[in-house]
Amino acid sequence: MSSFSSFNQNVIDEFRANAGKVGGPFEGAELLLLTTTGARSGRPHTVPLGLLRDGGTPLVVASAAGADRHPAWYHNLLARPLVRVETGSEEYEAVAVPAEGVRREELFARIVRDEPGYGAYQERTARVIPVVALHRSHEPAVDEGGIAGKLLSVHGWLRAELALLRELVREEPAGGGRGPAPLGLQLRQHCVAFCHSLEFHHRSEDAGLFPYLEQQHPHMREFFRRIGEEHRIVAGLQEELVRALDAPGGNAGGGFSERVARMSRELEAHLDHEEAQLLPVLRALEA
């Protein structure tokens, strides 16, 4: 372990042991712990960062002390926008969204007024130091426990994130006659977080929950076959969304809004169908 990694780990350990308070060079500073997923390794990666705020939204700055390269955690959250935030008093998931254009300039100017050190870091490098907003993930209220409650919670998150995607698509600027407008980072980050979460949820069902339930309830074999087919249809739509995001220039043309609308119709119908058939079975198992 490098001396820098060892230093970070000591800060992390002290942060967790003392409800977010640390000593040394960070004594009196407000910090958070940000856990990203490695863009290449797929492993969790936790770093202590200065906590700033835009109203009620936490902000972090990818300053890397003015280095000419973005820190690894920033590359990670571009690839995997769903992150874990620890503040000392609470822990939650968030979607990491870098600020863009004028918004980034406004936030950075405000940050430098309060914390001039970030201005010194920007003077050291030609790169534009990113400011990242951590939008707390939807946490639907679910009164039910067990596997049934977990299913409802995941489905509630997916529905809420899908509704947000529809809203963000409506807010995207048109091309103004000069070709399609580039997709904003907010839409991109939420879309990638949604797609990754949906893919993980369906893989978990197909690999674990559904084979177990089919073994317990052989009469439901046809239902699980149909659900598997729905998963494949949704996965195809998901791949289309990701390809549109990765298209040259990241343009919102080519029917992106139509793709989101179709994903909404297919996924909402799928979730309703799944809940109608599975919830009684899951509740009976836990009775």
* Average predicted local confidence, pLDDT: 90
Largest sheet: 7 strands, antiparallel
How large is the share of residues in beta strands? 5-15%
Query: Using only CA atoms, what is the Rg?
Result: 22 Å
How many helical stretches? 8
Coarse structural class: alpha+beta
Distance N to C terminus: 49 Å
Helix content, binned percent: 55-70%
Unreliable stretches: 175-181
Q: Rough shape? A: globular
Q: Would you list the SSEs in sequence order as H and E?
A: HEEEEHEEHHEHHHH
Spatial sequence of strands, sheet with the most strands: 2-1-5-6-7-4-3
The number of strands is 7
Topology record:
Layout: H1 3-17, E1 31-37, E2 44-50, E3 52-54, E4 57-61, H2 72-79, E5 82-86, E6 91-98, H3 101-114, H4 117-124, E7 131-136, H5 146-171, H6 185-216, H7 221-245, H8 256-285
Antiparallel strand pairs: 1-2, 1-5, 3-4, 4-7, 5-6, 6-7
Main features:
globular; alpha+beta; 287 residues; 8 helices; 7 strands
Describe this structure as you would to a colleague.
By secondary structure, this protein is α+β, with helices and mostly antiparallel strands. The chain is 55% helix and 14% strand. It is built from 8 helices and 7 strands. It has helices spanning 3-17, 72-79, 101-114, 117-124, 146-171, 185-216, 221-245, 256-285, and strands spanning 31-37, 44-50, 52-54, 57-61, 82-86, 91-98, 131-136. The chain has a 7-stranded antiparallel β-sheet, sandwiched between helices. A hairpin with a 4-residue loop joins strand 5 and strand 6. Helix 5 runs antiparallel to helix 6, helix 6 (185-216) packs antiparallel against helix 7 and helix 7 runs antiparallel to helix 8. The chain starts with a helix and ends with a helix. Residues 175-181 have low confidence and may be disordered.
